[in-house]
Design a protein that fits this description.
single chain; 377 residues; alpha/beta; five-stranded parallel beta sheet; 11 helices; 19 strands; globular
């Protein structure tokens, strides 16, 4: 079967691109390997830019139960510091968000192929992008959007992660007092080998995500429960939050080899790479969903303006590079023992630095730099 555009991946970036393309009259097929939306390893933080993009797509996050997040807290050892965020923010589970995006894509006229895995994506001699699915069937189109998130497609993989990051996610029902204290805040916890974040999401539950370098996990028998215990020893603030908490999953969701700091340099003609296939920002920034939406919107604008995919990808890289480098610099600081010891104390004295960091790691300044000749609504 043939369409104008193939979108590979039905997460935030893939759905956003599909919706925008279909609304502009393009025939689109979206291929997603999962049969239904599911929970994913994600901090589930929606920054101001993400809220704007979702609103433009017709997603009413308030109606979906999103929790407003006006504050950020940083905790290390026994110290914690708080600052108001310099932009509106909210929290919503990926399962809820992805379900709403899939429904909006269907309403826009996108043909959805769920529960179908792409085995090979290749370019034919006639310049078509051809996706071979797990049952041997073929979908093809002159243009493809690669939006497979953290999972690489054979032949289009990203560089290996030298730090070998492992990420985990668990939902908790906190004790009433702890839920009350956490309400309306996203908390970042520091500990040796990585960092974690906890924040409320819809339904009165909390999302705890944490990342750790493989070598630290190996020292604890490669067992997530051992590292979670170690995290609480190193960061008593987290131990306090989890006191009396009820885990809501049998075990955490996990993903490995996250190439933080990656920005795709180029691509092939007719292949626009978006979301985590375009750029992977360190998780502590809370900008992952925002970048997914941003790269999707810019790629659609570039496609509609007939901007070649390699030119778009290079321009996107240039636009995101300053933000990514600052985020990497900050992430290195968070993993420094001295920084963990003094940061909360310093931030109590000057909480405004958290607002400055949050503002500088946003994508807002990059919006006009990628496809200036096209506008997508």
């Amino acid at each position: 079967m043939q369409d104008e555009v193939l979108v590979l991946g039905g997460g935030v970036a893939g759905c956003a691109a599909s919706i925008a393309l279909a609304r502009r009259g393009r025939s689109v097929t979206l291929i997603e390997r999962e049969p239904t939306p599911r929970h994913k390893v994600c901090g589930e933080f929606l920054s101001g830019e993400a809220l704007e993009d979702l609103d433009a797509l017709g997603i009413d996050i308030a109606a979906l139960g999103a929790v407003p997040i006006p504050y950020v807290r940083l905790a290390a050892a026994r110290r914690a510091a708080e600052a108001p965020l310099p932009f509106p923010a909210a929290s919503l589970t990926r399962k809820t968000l992805d379900t709403a995006l899939i429904a909006e894509a269907i309403a826009a006229g996108v043909r959805i192929e769920c529960g179908r895995s792409v085995q090979v994506l290749s370019r034919t001699a006639t310049g078509m992008w051809q996706a071979m699915l797990d049952d041997g069937s073929i979908c093809e189109a002159p243009t493809a959007f690669l939006a497979t998130g953290k999972h690489d497609l054979r032949g289009h993989s990203r560089p290996k992660d030298p730090q070998r990051w492992v990420a985990f996610k668990m939902y908790y029902r906190l004790a009433p007092a702890q839920a009350s204290e956490l309400a309306r805040a996203s908390e970042l916890m520091l500990y040796p080998g990585g960092y974690g974040g906890i924040q409320p999401v819809e339904g009165g539950i909390a999302n705890l995500c944490w990342v750790v370098q493989q070598r630290y996990l190996s020292c604890l028998g490669n067992r997530w429960e051992n590292f979670l215990e170690k995290m609480q020893q190193n960061c008593p603030h987290l131990a306090m939050r989890l006191a009396g908490a009820e885990p809501l999953l049998d075990k955490p969701i996990a993903v490995t080899h996250i190439p933080y700091g990656y920005i795709r340099r180029t691509t092939q003609d007719g292949l626009y790479c978006i979301g985590d296939q375009a750029a992977v920002i360190p998780s502590f920034t809370g900008d992952g969903i925002s970048i997914a939406l941003h790269t999707a919107r810019c790629a659609v604008a570039a496609f509609l303006a007939n901007e070649p995919a390699p030119l778009f990808q290079a321009r996107l890289r240039s636009a995101l590079l300053p933000q990514m480098r600052l985020a990497e610099f900050a992430a290195d600081g968070l993993n420094n023992a001295l920084a963990r010891a003094v940061l909360p104390f310093c931030l109590r004295i000057w909480p405004g630095v958290m607002r400055v960091t949050a503002r500088l790691t946003r994508v807002a300044a990059q919006h006009a730099d990628v496809a200036p000749n096209a506008v997508v609504s």
